[in-house]
Amino acid sequence: MKGISTAHSVVEPTPLAKTVAMTLVILYAVITLVPLGWIVLTSIKSPPDSISYPPKVLFEPSVEGYCNLFTTRSRQTAEYIASLPPADDACERIARANSMVVVSRSNYAPRFINSLLIAAGSTLLSVGLGVMAAYAFSRFKVPGKDDLLFFILSTRMMPPIAVAIPIYLMYRELGLSDTKLGMILLYSAVNVSLAVWLLKGFIDEIPREYEEAAMIDGYTRLQAFRNVVLPQATTGIVATAIFCLIFAWNEYAFAVLLTSGEAQTAPPFIPIIIGEGGQDWPAVAAGTTLFLIPILVFTVLLRKHLLRGITFGAVRK
Amino acid sequence: MRGLSDRAIAWLFIAPTMVLLLAINIFPLIWTIRLSFTNYRANRPNAEVVNVGVDHYVSILTDPEIWQPMQATAHFLFWTIALQTVIGFGLAYLIDRKFRGHGFWTTLILVPMMLSPAVVGNFWAFLYQPQIGLFNYVVSFFTGIPPSSFEMIGSVKLAPWAIIIVDTWMWTPYVMLICLAGLRSIPDYIYEAAEVDRASAWRQFWSITLPMVLPFIMLAVLFRGIENFKMFDLVNLLTNGGPGSTTEVVSITLKREAFEKWRTGYSSALAIILFVAVFGLANIYVKALNAVKNR
């Protein structure tokens, strides 16, 4: 008995084991973050620095990538540029130093806004529908419940390209091709399965007694749902909404096949940012960096619920 | 005044979700099945549509060329899953040593899997550039091989590994996270009992840790399997199936047939075959989910 009752539990790793584990994990984390760090670094390089060999770690930072991301420019003669009034912003000055003038705004901002609107719209719709269906599945006897839930999950398993063929034809018939509404409906349909499964798990955890007590006090079922269950499920609803947002924000396959202008989101746009003579890597990196920042924020917000989200609620913890 | 009956509410709450899924998933699926028996081409909507019966299915299943994308997919699936499971489990095991600050480092490690595969694929194409890319430079720094002597994306031998490396970089955290949940689900008293019985650490690992984490590993493997079987965005932007068709996984074949060659009927049949395969996997997946849940 003596061995067990010491201050150190037998399952507590030794200090040496902890140090070794910590070193290896930190090493992995650093290596895995190098590509991301490189994206951010490249976004503040000038185009020549971005393609120099050996790759430059130390360089003079430049906003040229961000300027090129948000503008389109055209080449002009030196005489023409000399005849212009002095440049009034940094991007114009950089362009003129390269014998160019800023012509107009690029499509990046509109594409980014499309991404925002489509992600937000589809999240609202899928979480709204999802919370209702999840409540029904959690609280009522629904005939064929398991089959329905499996059906809902299986729709998420469909390969996007396989679904894209008939969606493409259907949207063409209905006039939904390249519209935000079309993309919102499509992403909602993909996300609603995740929403139902996740939210059912969260609602299952709310004791039924709360609603039953409310109903004894004179609430109808709907009032109890709205005033008792929804407030209790807030955390779950927010976590689910963030998962839906991330999916819609990151989605590429449908976006590249079904949108081309009006409703195009950022993921299909970023890879086709080109400058004179090939890809403008600082601009691509700038577009990527701005696009990834919201996801970093969400990852931190979600970290407690991440496990649940990625396993459709199977693993809770 | 009790308002609506529970039964009515149940259907009222479930119906909108079902309508959306039927309209955006099931109706198109039925349409695909119908198209798969015709020679319809989406770029010629006015051409006469001829019923070709099961010709497309027969030609796909007997065409030796279809095995090329199947092989590319299998190679990709096997190596991504093997690498992610080994590295992911290893990482989870290390993190479970509960050293100081493990929560912070875990969150950092998770970042790649949250990102857009398309945007990531596009950027890795930059890292893989033979002259200017960071990847080749780092490899040459550690091995002395000249950085311009190999091309990750352009060469038939290396391109399959280029996509495996990026997918592993992205999704190892996923496997790690699920394994970590598995490790943490093992109650301490089992190890304490093993300690009393003087079981060696090695023995404890093989007869307690691994068997108890196994259902979680299975779950991760199945999920990665389904996802990577459908893999499109990352590969589309990294290699677009090239060089030639070395990295042409089935989704890329499908895209080429449907949206480049516009063989809508033929690609519909391929889509249905693909869907049946995924559906089979999904069935197993849900059973595994329930097994883990009911533990």
What does this protein look like?
The complex is a heterodimer of chains A (317) and B (295). Helix content of chain A is 68%, strand content 5%. Chain A has 16 helices and four strands. Chain A starts with 14 loop residues before the first helix and ends in a 7-residue tail after the last helix. Chain A folds into two domains: 47-106, no CATH class; 109-267 and 292-310, Orthogonal Bundle (MetI-like fold). In chain A, the strands form two sheets. Chain A has a two-stranded antiparallel ribbon. Chain A has a two-stranded antiparallel sheet with strand order 3-4. By secondary structure, chain B is mainly alpha-helical. Chain B has a single domain, classed as MetI-like (MetI-like fold, Orthogonal Bundle). Chain B is built from twelve helices and no strands. Chain B has helices spanning 6-35, 55-62, 67-95, 102-114, 117-127, 134-143, 159-184, 188-196, 201-229, 233-238, 250-260, 264-293. The longest helix of chain B has 30 residues, at 6-35. The mean pLDDT of chain B is 88. The chains are: A mainly alpha (317), B mainly alpha (295). Chains A and B meet through helix 1, helix 6, helix 7, helix 8 and helix 9 of A and helix 1, helix 3, helix 4, helix 5 and helix 7 of B.
What is the helix tally of chain B? Answer: 12
- Mean pLDDT, all residues of chain A: 87
Estimate what percentage of residues of chain A fall within beta strands. Answer: under 5%
For the largest interface, the chains and their residue counts are:
A-B, 106 and 108 residues
Q: In order across it, which strands form the biggest sheet of chain A?
A: 1-2
Give the overall form of chain A. Answer: globular
Q: What portion of residues of chain B belong to β-strands?
A: under 5%
Structural class of chain A: mainly alpha
Main pleated-sheet profile of chain A: 2 strands, antiparallel
The CA-CA distance between the termini of chain A, in Å, is 33 Å
Q: What level of helicity do the residues of chain B show? A: over 70%
Q: How far from one another are the termini of chain B?
A: 43 Å
Low-confidence sequence ranges of chain B:
none
Count of folded domains of chain B: 1
Ranges of chain A where pLDDT stays below 50 over 5 or more residues in a row are 1-8
SSE pattern of chain A, N- to C-terminal:
HHHEHHEHHHHHHHHHEEHH
On the 0 to 100 scale, the average pLDDT of chain B is: 88
- Report the CATH C-level class of chain B: Mainly Alpha
What is the CATH C level class of the largest domain in chain A, in words? Mainly Alpha
